[in-house]
């Protein structure tokens, strides 16, 4: 890792950035794309309205501190079903 090697890395990086700059200056545009703007009104005729969830905050907090993964829960439930 000499200064000469780092100089080479810098020059390669600078050339790469310069190449990208030149490509953008030749073919790039700054036209605003149609997907940039959100629709002004929600389309409720063709979709379902969202429903609020009626979850108690204690249930959410309890699940945040649960260390058991989904795979472990599934395995435990399968084990319980097989043993009954």
From TrEMBL:
The keyword Transmembrane applies. Keywords: Membrane, Transmembrane, Transmembrane helix. The chain crosses the membrane at residues 6-27. This is Major facilitator superfamily (MFS) profile domain-containing protein. It comes from Bracon brevicornis. The lineage of its organism: Eukaryota, Metazoa, Ecdysozoa, Arthropoda, Hexapoda.
